[in-house]
Write a structure and sequence with these properties.
Blueprint (H helix, E strand, L loop, with lengths): L2 E5 L8 E4 L5 E4 L1 E2 L5 H12 L7 E3 L8 E2 L1 H7 L5 E3 L10 H13 L1 E3 L4 E5 L2 E7 L15 E8 L4 E8 L5 H10 L2 H4 L3 E3 L21 H6 L3 E4 L11 H10 L9 E3 H4 L2 E5 L5 E5 L3
Parallel strand pairs: 3-5, 4-6, 5-7, 7-8, 12-13, 13-14, 14-15
Antiparallel strand pairs: 1-2, 1-16, 2-3, 9-10, 10-11, 11-12, 16-17
C-alpha cells in the first residue's frame, strides 16, 4: 500500500490525516471549528469511513490551532493514543488546551522524543524534533517534527518523503542539523512551517541574512502551506519568495500548494518510488 497524506483545509491551522502503509490512520494536528466541522468530519469519513479508529494523534505543539476540536474528532473517529512533546503551550487555560489534556489522560499518551523512529509497514515515521532543552523554551521551537518516509522495508530502501514541520523556526533547524546528516534532511515535499511565517527563515544570530541552509539541504520539489484568513500576515511574502526559489518544482513545474488557495491537498507516496499531488479545489 502507498502512504497517503491529506493536508485538510481547516483555515488558519493545521491538520494532516495520514494513511500509513500498514493501514493505520494517523492524525498530525487538528483544527476543527464550528464553521468547518461538518465539512472536515465528512471529508474524513469519505476517506477512512465513519467510526474508523485513529491509531495515533500527534500534537505537534499545544497551540489552539493545532489541537482545536480533537475531542470532536474522537467522538467520530476514536483516537487510540496521543503523541505529545510534553512542552506546555501558550494558553493552558483555554478550552482547547483543557480538551486536549482531558483526551490525553483518557486514551493514554506517549511523550515522543526526538531521534526516534517507528515503522508501520512500508511507512517510517522519523521524529526529528520534540522537547529539547537546547531550544528556546517555547512550544513553537519545540514542535514535533516528523519525516514521513515511504520505503521498501524488505530491501531497507527509502523512497520519497514528506517533512512535517509544525511551527518550528530557524533556530530549531540549526539544532536539528547538528543531530542529523544532510541526507536525513532531504525530502520530496516540505510542509511550510508556521503557516508560511518568516520565523522559519529568520536567522537568530545573523539578522542581516535569511537562514536558508536547512531548506537547501532538504531540497524539496514543493512546499505545502496550511493557512487561512488570519491577522498575522501568514504567509509572509518573503517566505513565499524563498520557498519558490529553493523548491525545484514538480514534473509540472509547481513549487507551492496552499490550502487557502487550492483547498485540501492530497499527497500520495507510491510503492517503488514516485509521488503525486492532488488539489481538491481548482
Amino acid at each position: 500500500m502507498p502512504t497517503k497524506l491529506h493536508f485538510i483545509d481547516v483555515g488558519q491551522g493545521n491538520m494532516v490525516l495520514i494513511e500509513l502503509a500498514d493501514g493505520t490512520h494517523f492524525l498530525y494536528d487538528c483544527n476543527v471549528t464550528e464553521e468547518n466541522a461538518d465539512r472536515v468530519l465528512q471529508y474524513m469519513a469519505d476517506q477512512i469511513g465513519w467510526g474508523a479508529k485513529i491509531g495515533k494523534f500527534a500534537c505537534s505543539h499545544r497551540d489552539a490551532d493545532h489541537m482545536r476540536g480533537v475531542k470532536r474528532i474522537h467522538e467520530y473517529f476514536p483516537i487510540q493514543k496521543v503523541w505529545d512533546t510534553g512542552v506546555t503551550g501558550t494558553s493552558p487555560e483555554s478550552w482547547e488546551y483543557r480538551d486536549f489534556m482531558d483526551l490525553r489522560r483518557k486514551v493514554g499518551f506517549l511523550e515522543v522524543e526526538h531521534l526516534k523512529r517507528w515503522d508501520f509497514g512500508n511507512t517510517r515515521l522519523r521524529v526529528m524534533n520534540s522537547k529539547n532543552d537546547k531550544l528556546a523554551n517555547n512550544a513553537n521551537a519545540q514542535s514535533m517534527v516528523i519525516k514521513v518516509v515511504h520505503r521498501n522495508s524488505a530491501a531497507d530502501q527509502d523512497h520519497d518523503s514528506v517533512m512535517l514541520t509544525g511551527d518550528t523556526d530557524a533556530a530549531t533547524w540549526k539544532t536539528i542539523r547538528n543531530n542529523y546528516a544532510d541526507a536525513d534532511l532531504a525530502c520530496s515535499l516540505l510542509m511550510g512551517s508556521h503557516h508560511g511565517s518568516l520565523t522559519y527563515f529568520d536567522d537568530p544570530v545573523d539578522e542581516k541574512h535569511y537562514y536558508i541552509d536547512h531548506v537547501i539541504k532538504k531540497a524539496p520539489a514543493m512546499a505545502i502551506l496550511s493557512v487561512g484568513d488570519n491577522p498575522h500576515g501568514h504567509p509572509h511574502a518573503k517566505s513565499l519568495e524563498l520557498y519558490e526559489k529553493h523548491c525545484s518544482g514538480s514534473d509540472k513545474g509547481n513549487k507551492l500548494a496552499r490550502t487557502d488557495v487550492h483547498g485540501t491537498i492530497i499527497v500520495t507516496l507510491k510503492d517503488g518510488g514516485g509521488w503525486n499531488v492532488k488539489k481538491s479545489r481548482a
